[in-house]
């Protein structure tokens, strides 16, 4: 058994057939098939069901696949640690960010990383919270920029900043004519939400103390905050926004923003890693690169 064989079965899971997996691994299809077959013979289990389209893993194969991901993640981490020990801030770091933070965090973060005095390569991807936590555990990413609490026994979180919520309200909605509103003024019948995979949806429900979505002839779960804004502009109603999104609104749209009275609802934005993640110098560098993104 070797790392290459483990990489092959991970590629099979990703690409669902031998030809595409072989191309991704830069080997011939017969070579990849033969190496997977040797691994099966060594372990005395069938990993994949050949002849299935798309390719399927056996139950035993799925167990092996999860272990292979962990082993390859540790291999990747060992290489990264050696680079930090010998070269300082170096290597390749993979970071996810939740979609509701991407527009306000990523642009200045990229600028700060590119201007830094280091040899670090950073890859960024947008992932909802649950998918990000799974990716962390499976070694597919090294860090995640989140806005929810995590299991402290598995993850370590480094606070970045607190972000306030505001209401974005159609001018046709009847709300109290006062500078500040309270969560009780937000009604579920007129509130637009993000889809269920977004943690921002749950945060909005928590702010307004709702248990479920509105009842309507049309139920629409939006995929982005920009879509929520358009829904309010075109169809009325209201939604919640992170306060940082105000900078992207037009002068006309800013008139639709209503602030909450104290205590203002907010969320804590954090950089999250696995609990035993060892690259502390890289974490410190990235925390500094993220902090100016708030301004």
Question: What does the model show?
Answer:
This protein has 295 residues and is α/β, with parallel strands linked by helices. The chain folds into 3 domains: 3-74, Orthogonal Bundle (Arc Repressor Mutant, subunit A), CATH 1.10.10.10; 89-161 and 268-294, D-Maltodextrin-Binding Protein, domain 2, CATH 3.40.190; 164-266, D-Maltodextrin-Binding Protein, domain 2 (3-Layer(aba) Sandwich). Helix content is 43%, strand content 21%. It contains 10 helices and 12 strands. The chain has helices at 3-15, 18-25, 29-43, 59-87, 99-115, 129-137, 199-208, 225-235, 251-254, 280-290; strands at residues 48-49, 56-57, 90-97, 119-126, 143-146, 155-169, 180-181, 193-194, 221-222, 238-242, 257-260, 266-274. Strands 3, 4, 5, 6, 7, 10, 11 and 12 form an 8-stranded mixed beta sheet that branches. Strands 1-2 form a two-stranded antiparallel sheet. Helix 5 (99-115) links the parallel strand 3 and strand 4 (119-126). Helix 2 packs across helix 3. The longest helix has 29 residues, at 59-87. The chain is elongated and about 75 Å long. 28% of the residues are buried. Mean pLDDT is 84; it is low at 216-220.
């Amino acid at each position: 058994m070797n790392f290459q064989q483990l990489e092959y079965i991970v590629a099979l899971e990703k690409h669902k057939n031998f030809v595409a997996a072989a191309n991704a691994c830069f080997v011939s299809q017969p070579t990849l098939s033969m190496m997977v077959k040797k691994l099966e013979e060594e372990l005395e289990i069938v990993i994949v069901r050949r002849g299935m389209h798309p390719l399927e893993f056996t139950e035993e194969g799925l167990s092996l696949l999860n272990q292979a991901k962990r082993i390859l993640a540790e291999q990747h981490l060992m290489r990264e640690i050696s680079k930090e020990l010998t070269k300082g801030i170096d290597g390749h770091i993979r970071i996810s960010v939740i979609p509701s933070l991407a527009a306000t965090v990523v642009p200045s973060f990229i600028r700060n990383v590119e201007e830094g005095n280091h040899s670090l390569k950073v890859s960024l991807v947008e992932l909802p919270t649950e998918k990000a936590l799974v990716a962390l555990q499976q070694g597919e990413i090294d860090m995640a920029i989140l806005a929810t609490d995590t299991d402290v026994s598995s993850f370590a979180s480094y606070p970045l900043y607190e972000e306030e919520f505001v209401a974005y309200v159609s001018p046709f909605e009847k709300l109290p004519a006062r500078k500040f509103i309270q969560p009780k003024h937000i009604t579920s019948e007129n509130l637009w939400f993000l889809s269920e995979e977004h943690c921002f949806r749950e945060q909005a429900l928590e702010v307004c103390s709702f248990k479920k979505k509105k009842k309507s002839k049309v139920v629409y779960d939006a995929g982005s905050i920009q879509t929520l804004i358009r829904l309010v502009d075109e169809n009325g109603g209201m939604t919640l926004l992170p306060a940082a999104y105000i900078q992207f609104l037009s002068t006309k749209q800013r008139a639709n923003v209503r602030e909450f009275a104290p205590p203002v609802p907010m969320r804590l934005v954090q950089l999250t890693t696995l609990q035993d993640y060892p690259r502390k110098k890289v974490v410190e560098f990235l925390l500094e690169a993220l902090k100016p993104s708030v301004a």
